[in-house]
Each structure stands twice: as C-alpha cells, then as structure tokens.
Design brief:
Elements (H helix, E strand, L loop, with lengths): L3 E4 L2 E5 L5 H15 L5 H4 L3 H17 L3 E7 L2 E12 L4 E8 L8 H16 L4 E7 L3 H9 L3 E12 L2 E11 H9 L4
Parallel strand pairs: 5-6
Antiparallel strand pairs: 1-2, 2-3, 3-4, 4-5, 6-8, 7-8
Helix pairs in contact: 1-3
Bound molecules: coenzyme A.
Length: about 190
C-alpha cells in the first residue's frame, strides 16, 4: 500500500518497525558497500537494533522532525532515503541515502530524492534541502550534482568515522533554484 512508482519495477514505500527483520536482511546486503559512509550500517546489527531504528524514524515522522522510506526493486527492499533532519521552524532539511550494491547504477536514488525534494519544497514549504557527503564519496557527490545542488563548503575533518577523519562537503538546493530547475524541464 502507499507505494510511489519509480519506474522499471522500482518503488518508494514506507518502512515501519514491524518490518525490522526484512530491513535487517537488506542492511546485511548493503553493509559492506555503504559502511564507509553511512553510520546506520553499524547501528543496525540485529533485529532489535533494526526495530529501534525504525521506531526512532516512526517517532520522528509523528513529531514531523524526520522521515524514512524504503526503495524497493521488484518487491525487494534494496535501499533507503530519509530526512535525517526536518526542521520546519527554519525550513531546512537534510536528505540521506543508501542502496545495496545490486541496485546501484539505475538512477533509483536520483528519482527517489527528486520526489522527496518536491514534497519538501512544494508541500512542506522547505526553503533549503541539504546533502552532506565525504569528499571521498564520489558517487554521493555525483548524485548531489545531478540534482542540481550547489557546493556550499567543506567542514574539514568534521566526521571521524571508521578510523578516518572525513572532510564533509555540504551541498544544497534552495526552493527557488529547485523550481527554476523544474521550469527548465529537469525531471
Ligand atoms: C550514493 C549512492 C546511493 C548512489 O547510487 P547511484 O546508483 O550512483 O545513484 P542513482 O541511483 O541515482 O543512479 C545513478 C547512476 O545510474 C545511472 N542510470 C542508469 N539508468 C538511469 C536512469 N534511468 N536515470 C538516471 N540514472 C540512471 C546513472 O548514469 C548513474 O550511473 P553512473 O554514476 O555510473 O553515471 C550509492 O553509491 C550508495 O549507496 N553508496 C553507499 C552509501 C552512500 O555513500 N550513501 C550516501 C552517503 S552521503
């Protein structure tokens, strides 16, 4: 129920605490690929920690401070897109994403995040949508560029993760920029 088609058998759907086992199985498939960049890959290590993560996002959704959706391909849960931050007072939000490796290279994240930004800007009045990525994460930065985001700057060595102090690039798109991009025909 409540699925948005992304084309070619892919869709965006809610994912809830009762789906913790399925979510864990997906994270197990994604873990090695996404762990260098995504802390959630370490946080979710068993069914209980998966359930806690999903409950955390269910609570955020109820409080309107964050959201999480699953990307599915031919029914299988293959990725996630989320608003890690959803700050309605400041009209600013931050998107996070990951895929399991078998689902990469198909444009699923680009399409899913376009839907999220459309919703954030047009339905929720967000002025600024942020994307944070390590300077070393070229695939993530490529997604930000494809979405027409601008590179605001670099938080040098701000994120110690897995034994590395990552330079975190802050990318963003503002509501008027997003609308201009739409008006120019970008899907
Ligand atoms: C970041 C990540 C989600 C990007 O995945 P991705 O597959 O490159 O992104 P998309 O789903 O938008 O797909 C874009 C790719 O699909 C290709 N593609 C194929 N069909 C396409 C279509 N119909 N539409 C758009 N792109 C298409 C694009 O050419 C592009 O490939 P390329 O980078 O080789 O040129 C993925 O690499 C990942 O999960 N990484 C590990 C976790 C991570 O780093 N998360 C981000 C933390 S900041």
């Amino acid at each position: 129920m409540f699925a948005i088609p992304l084309g070619d058998g892919a869709e965006l759907r809610p994912v809830e605490p009762w789906q913790a086992q399925e979510f864990l199985e997906h994270i197990d498939r994604a873990r090695d690929y996404a762990r260098p960049w995504v802390p959630l890959m370490v946080r979710v290590r068993d069914v209980e920690s998966a359930r806690v993560l999903l409950q955390d996002y269910a609570d955020k959704q109820a409080a309107d401070t964050g959201r999480l959706w699953a990307v599915r391909l031919n029914g299988t849960l293959v990725g996630g897109v989320l608003f890690r931050v959803f700050d309605t007072a400041n009209e600013t939000c931050e998107v996070g994403v990951w895929l399991e490796p078998s689902a990469a290279g198909r444009g699923l994240i680009g399409k899913a995040v376009e839907l999220l930004i459309d919703w954030a800007v047009e339905e929720r009045g967000m002025h600024r949508v942020e994307w944070l990525a390590s300077s070393a994460n070229h695939r993530s930065i490529a997604v930000a560029k494809r979405l027409g985001m601008s590179r605001d700057g670099v938080l040098r060595e701000s994120f110690p993760w897995q034994g590395v102090r990552h330079d975190m690039e802050v990318w963003s798109v503002l509501a008027p920029e997003w609308r201009a991009r739409r008006a120019a025909g970008h899907r």
